[in-house]
Amino acid sequence: MTAANRPFVTAALAAVVALLAAMTAVPAQASTASTFTSAGSNPVLFVHGYTGDGSNWNTMAGRFRADGWPSSYLDQWTYDWHQSNTTTAQQLSAEVDRLLAATGATKVDIVSHSMGGLSSRSYLKNFGGTGKVDAWVSLGGPNHGTDSANTCFDPSCTEMRAGSDFLAALNAGDETPGSPRYATWWSPCDTVINPDSSVALSGATNTRTACLSHTGLLSDATVYAQIRDMINS
């Protein structure tokens, strides 16, 4: 190597070192979404669907705990699924306030399944929830109705029918109001939500999953990882 070439070689080596440093920094940044941090992670309030209860979330809540979320930050809420989704939304408002007070957090993340997406959306739109929720997730939510609700007659179920007064009011105007980050997941193999297009919301990040059943959305590891990283970003 000549003396004249040495500066160019040194500069080239410096560029390579800088590039390698940048490349190795990417995984470290990406992995932060997978880990609970006391400064950046919110409590998670799980809202089950029709005929369900808080135990529906055992698998997902267990995965959150394995990734560092304290049990006090994981609220597997149970409510009376027979009642109107508006009544559930009002009760959800009180549960959010209870969870915030118990944890000292300023906002929660809501993860809902099926009909739970309707009451939690009603809470956001009609009961002041947009100021208390950072991220909202719907798994297989009948956001625009499902024909599966045509043969059941509980107040909550009739509200899931396409064209119901409840859904017309809920979807009027902005489907994703306020500052929360909205995301939905839908499966092409979900036989409970028909049509599949019912799940997606205007203004949300809408994700198609692999071929999963309606309840399979609750336990799929890939869906969990995507939700975890979305709410924790």
Folded structure, characterized:
The structure is a single chain. This protein is of the alpha/beta class and 233 residues long. The protein has 7 helices and 6 strands; from the N terminus they run αβαβαβαβααββα. The longest helix is centred in the first third of the chain and has 26 residues, at 6-31. The protein starts with 5 loop residues before the first helix and ends with a helix.
In short:
This protein has 233 residues and is of the alpha/beta class. It is built from seven helices and six strands.
Ordered list of secondary-structure elements with their pairings:
Blueprint: H1 6-31, E1 44-47, H2 58-66, E2 74-77, H3 85-103, E3 108-113, H4 116-126, E4 133-139, H5 155-158, H6 165-171, E5 181-186, E6 205-208, H7 221-231
Parallel strand pairs: 1-2, 1-3, 3-4, 4-5, 5-6
Helix pairs in contact: 3-4
